[in-house]
Design a protein that fits this description.
Elements (H helix, E strand, L loop, with lengths): L1 H22 L7 H22 L7 H20 L1
Helix pairs in contact: 1-2, 2-3
Amino acid sequence: MIYLVIINIISFLSMGLDKFLAIISKRRISENTLLFLTLIGGGLGTLIGMFIFRHKIRKMKFQILVPLSLIIFYIIKTTI
């Protein structure tokens, strides 16, 4: 449980940082890194970050993989 809290905080902050770096035109966090954080358990943090920071909400990869990762983790959690 502690792991999920930490990875979701990291995912959320990564979305915010990437949005900030995009605004100031600096080198950004790769989409692969953001998706990796999502797929290892940070789906909720990424989803919340997408909407709070209005970031990556039009990207089809994120529209599909973020909710899918949440569903997968819910299924895994309920079966264990």
